[in-house]
Amino acid sequence: MKKSKSNTLRIEAHSGWKFIDFRELIRNRDLLYFMVLRGIKAKYAQSVLGIGWAIIQPLVQTIVFTIIFGNLAKIDSEGIPYLLFSFVAMVPWNYFSNILTEASDSLVQNKGLLSKVYFPRIIMPLSAVFSKLLDFVIGMIALVGLLFYYEIYPKWELMMFPVILLILILTSLGSGMLLSAMAVQYRDVNHAMTFMVRLFMYGAPVVYSISVIPSSYLYLYALNPMVGVIEGMRACFIMEKAMPWDLLLIGGTVSLIIFFIGGVYFTRVEKSFADVA
């Protein structure tokens, strides 16, 4: 897309490989804001509990996990109350899993717009990432309440929280771009996401401690960026142990790779969205 001297906006198809045009996103920031606001209203409008669902969802899941895995299966929670141990993992995991589900369906649900109006298509999955941040913030407020209840107070490791959040967002956005672009051409993606997200959860230390992973497989296991995110969250808020720098380094590197691959693949195939959506 180019802007001529006469202030006429000219849209041109691009060829070859290209990454996200951030300048174009800045020019369309008002549309992004509207899409984020629409996503929030669509979820909570005419809802009795409203944003309370952002607390109820992870809390109910955590209570169920506490009964099954904490009380019945007696899974080790490293000396931390199991309710708190699993809740601190459920907050980032729910953010990630909800983005996978919503972003993968974002282009298909708005297919009418793709063939009628020009706008940066990347806004669709990006709006899911930002709209779900509200749920994440509310979940974090609930986590702070639990920390005070159990009389656990912040440590210096809390300074790493912005880095952990960045890894979480990059992983979520990269995965969302990749899945949303694939879902336009392959509708199986949307059908598979419902149960795949549940399977993915057991590939991250949400309901169990990372101590159950053999040390010889630990770095292979850490290729899942959510491993570093969840263990980093526990180190920030509840665990009396060192920050897992190695897991964060591996997870951060993989998250950048996912973000880059997702962005390149999305911009590569977006010119065909209107034809196949």
Give a summary of the structure in a few sentences.
This protein has 277 residues and is mainly α.
Walk me through this protein's architecture.
- Helix content is about 65%, strand content about 0%.
- It has about 280 residues and is an all-alpha fold.
- A two-stranded antiparallel ribbon has the order 1-2.
- Strand 1 (about 1-5) and strand 2 form a beta hairpin.
- It is globular and about 55 Å long.
- The model has no long low-confidence stretch (mean pLDDT about 80).
| Number of helices, counting only DSSP H or I runs of 4 residues or more | 13
Helix content: 55-70%
Largest sheet: 2 strands, antiparallel
Shape: globular
Give the spatial strand order of the biggest sheet.
1-2
Describe this protein with a few key phrases.
277 residues, mainly alpha, two-stranded antiparallel ribbon, 13 helices
Write the layout of secondary structure elements.
Elements (H helix, E strand, L loop, with lengths): L1 E2 L5 E2 L11 H6 L1 H16 L8 H20 L9 H28 L1 H4 L8 H9 L1 H17 L11 H25 L2 H14 L16 H4 L3 H13 L7 H25 L3 H4 L1
Antiparallel strand pairs: 1-2
